[in-house]
Design brief:
Largest interface: A-B, 21 and 18 residues
Number of strands of chain B: 15
Strand order of the largest sheet of chain A: 1-2-3
Largest sheet of chain A: 3 strands, antiparallel
Radius of gyration of chain A: 13 Å
Helix content of chain B: 25-40%
Oligomer: heterodimer
Strand content of chain B: 15-25%
Order of helices and strands of chain A: HEEEHHHH
Distance between the termini of chain B: 58 Å
Number of strands of chain A: 3
Radius of gyration of chain B: 22 Å
Helix content of chain A: 40-55%
Number of domains of chain B: 2
Order of helices and strands of chain B: HEHHEHEHEHEHEHEEHEEHHEEHEEHEH
CATH topology of the largest domain in chain B: Aspartate Aminotransferase, domain 2
CATH class of the largest domain in chain B: Alpha Beta
CATH topology of chain A: Sufe protein. Chain: A
Distance between the termini of chain A: 34 Å
CATH architecture of chain A: Alpha-Beta Complex
Structural class of chain A: alpha+beta
């Protein structure tokens, strides 16, 4: 299957929840030193529930589309529940096989979430808690 | 063993030496500035070592070990000839350019660089010719200074006079930029550096594979390059140095082979080049590098340069037709076969990803040259780089792939 299929391109073209939240509970940004992609997540959390989420930054189709999908996934869920999201969940969402380099693009947004919300450092799948 | 026969530059014959090009779907391999393909004669030479005389060098008192030693040392002679080193013992085998530069930074740097001394670099250096000097500067209190580049991607010589002072102890400069392909006029820089008694190390990773480099003509003090960017194997690189410098320098790595005699508390060290080759080296790879030198010498470095220039001029013509493309770096005649670019509104990773689906292998990213990316005011670029086996059809395939990328992506809004 091709990386440049319609669903991913649609997320890239019209990303969900793109923007920033000036007064948010959690705001965190990470970059991928390999390619310079940068993703920031802003969350408003009320009683453990993520009531609002926005992402911003720049990146390739895979980084932007996976960030867009991630924000859709976590909106309205509890932080406790979202903590369980794994590397494989993201790859399932993307739905196409990715090589070792592009996997980092796909996991960047999840990394931002894990570091920002839970202080779990490292790339998803190889964290040092 | 495979014997190399002389032949004129014949692209079809050359391509037959690289089995990877006979596979389908076709591959336009345009990432040669990162690493090149390896021809059969080189692979066969390494196979012959493994199949018929596999043994350690410099020690065994038996026939196949002597053969391995002879082949290893013959490779050193071939490399010395390639760069016109006065003596083969001035050729040190390392793992790669990076290790060669680190060897100089640790060994020469530890005894020749002190607080307040200055090391002059350029903003187009590869990280391998930048980070070792940062580490040295941090260890010693020395200061790094940078020769800037012009908007065309050429070195800005107007600054050179101010940069080079009696404080300058070393100039570390890339011969050819891995991102822009710019061929730097290093001979005049070396002269200017020597005029203030500074030494010069040349990062020749992107030059030795593509045109004749003569260390005596350049009069450089050190020169480093890698086997894997010139059709050779990975894991083998070269450091050339002037004899008087190499002889005065303390060892880099300690261990077997690099000693003359070892007491409990102190050792004396071997002569050059063994002093800098501790431990069992990459024997097959060194032998392979010797055959690589034969290969590119017989293909003819002057002919390779002309061939790359033709591809480069054609690539410039074609790519300039694409709307929204920005090419970085100077005109083709001022560079080697490297073309770095970006397409408006398309992330370099996406350009490379779409090209891959079209059978074109290019590099996208910062190319281990982040200060240069900053100077160009980009996060990353796409880079196509040519070598002797590339064809006009490869360039056409690149052009078609870029048109495809544009069609796919430019109707899209970019966040």
């Amino acid at each position: 299957m091709n990386i440049y299929q319609e669903e991913l391109l649609d997320h890239y073209e019209n990303p969900s929840n793109y923007g920033t939240l000036p007064r948010c509970t959690i705001s965190h940004e990470e970059d991928n030193p390999l390619c310079g992609d940068q993703i920031r997540l802003d969350l408003i959390v009320e009683d453990d529930i993520i009531t609002k989420v926005r992402f911003s930054g720049h990146g390739c189709t895979i980084s932007i589309a996976s960030a867009s999908m991630l924000t859709e996934e976590i909106q309205g869920k509890s932080l406790t529940e979202v903590k369980k999201l794994s590397r494989d969940d993201i790859l399932d969402m993307i739905g196409i096989p990715l090589g070792p380099v592009r996997i980092k693009c796909a996991l960047l947004a999840l990394k931002v979430l894990k570091v920002g919300a839970y202080g779990i450092k490292g790339w998803p799948g190889e964290e040092n808690e | 063993m495979h014997k190399l026969e002389f032949r004129p530059f014949d692209i079809e014959a050359i391509r037959k030496d690289f089995p990877i090009f006979a596979t389908t779907p076709p591959l336009a391999f345009l990432d040669n500035a990162a690493s090149t393909q390896t021809p059969r004669p080189v692979v066969e030479a390494m196979d012959a070592y493994y199949d018929t005389y596999r043994s350690n060098i410099h020690r065994g008192i038996y026939r196949i070990s002597e053969e391995a030693t002879e082949q290893y040392e013959r490779a050193r002679e071939k490399v010395a000839q390639l760069i016109n080193a006065p003596r083969s013992r001035q050729v040190i085998f390392t793992r790669n350019t990076t290790e060669s530069i680190n060897l100089v930074a640790y060994s020469w740097g530890s005894t020749n660089i002190g607080e307040g001394d200055e090391i002059v670099l350029t903003t187009m250096e590869h990280h391998s010719n930048l980070v070792p000097w940062q580490l040295l500067a941090q260890r010693t209190g020395a200061r790094l200074r940078f020769l800037e580049i012009t908007d065309e991607g050429l070195l800005d010589f107007t600054q050179l006079r101010d940069l080079l002072t009696e404080k300058t102890k070393l100039v570390a400069i890339g011969h050819v930029s891995n991102v822009l392909g710019t061929i730097n006029p290093i001979q005049s820089i070396i002269e200017a550096a020597h005029a203030v008694d500074a030494k010069v190390i040349v990062d020749a990773a992107q030059s030795v594979p593509h045109f004749q480099v003569d260390v005596q003509q350049l009069d450089c003090d050190f020169l480093a390059f890698s086997g894997h960017k010139m059709c050779g194997p990975t894991g083998i690189g070269v450091l050339y140095g002037k004899s008087e410098l190499l002889e005065e320098m303390p060892p880099f790595l300690g261990g077997g082979s690099m000693i003359r005699s070892v007491e409990r508390d102190v050792s004396s060290y071997a002569e050059l080049p063994a002093k800098f080759e501790a431990g069992t080296p990459s024997i097959a790879e060194a032998i392979g590098l010797g055959y690589t030198v034969d290969y590119i010498t017989q293909a003819n470095l002057a002919a390779i340069h002309v061939h790359e220039q033709e591809l480069l001029k054609y690539a410039h013509q074609r790519l300039e037709q694409i709307e929204g493309i920005t090419l970085y770096g100077p005109a083709p005649h001022q560079k080697t076969g490297v073309i770095s670019f970006n397409m408006e509104g398309i992330h370099p990773h996406d350009v490379a990803g779409i090209l891959d689906t079209h059978g074109v292998a290019v590099r996208a990213g910062h190319h281990c040259a982040q200060p240069l990316m900053k100077r160009l005011d980009v996060i990353a670029t796409v880079r196509a780089s040519f070598y002797l086996y590339n064809t006009i059809e490869d360039v056409d395939r690149l052009y078609e792939g870029l048109c495809r990328a544009q069609k796919l992506m430019t109707r899209r809004k970019i966040v």
